[in-house]
Design goal:
Blueprint lengths: L1 H20 L2 H9 L14 H14 L6 H14 L4 E8 L4 E8 L2 E2 L6 H4 L1 E5 L1
Antiparallel strand pairs: 1-2, 1-4, 2-3
Helix pairs in contact: 1-3, 1-4, 3-4
């Protein structure tokens, strides 16, 4: 588990750099082009274990982790371990809010399951 937390933390650090020094399009393309690695069934880490590692990494991160950074990192991490995850970006009109989360097969995995009911989906990648 410590290795997963460290891997998640380093991924957060890298994406923080990308979000600070590059354009949103670069982050979007990075997530869109992250390949889902094929893994044998025995080698698949549980989704809950990977999401828990990301949660711990967010706790230990040097500053507050925003939903876009967290969801992009979670999506990339899940794809590294063989899960076909999608980052979803949504918005609500009144009051205006935007949010990002991660889904696998249409099920929210790194946030509350009712996110799809609150926010109108703008983009999936």
């Amino acid at each position: 588990m410590k290795r997963l937390i460290l891997e998640s933390w380093l991924l957060l650090l890298y994406l923080d750099w990308v979000m600070h020094w590059q354009e949103f399009e670069d982050l979007h393309q990075m997530v869109r082009h992250a390949k889902c690695r094929p893994a044998a069934t025995a080698q698949l880490r549980a989704v809950t274990e990977l999401c828990r590692a990301m949660d711990y990494a967010c706790v230990f991160y040097v500053k507050r982790v925003l939903c876009l950074q967290r969801s992009a990192a979670t999506t990339i991490l899940l794809r590294r371990y063989g899960w076909s995850a999608e980052m979803v970006i949504g918005a609500q009109i009144l009051p205006f809010k935007s949010h990002a989360w991660c889904e696998i097969n249409g099920e929210v995995v790194n946030d509350k399951p009712y996110m799809k009911d609150i926010y109108q989906v703008l983009e999936r990648c």
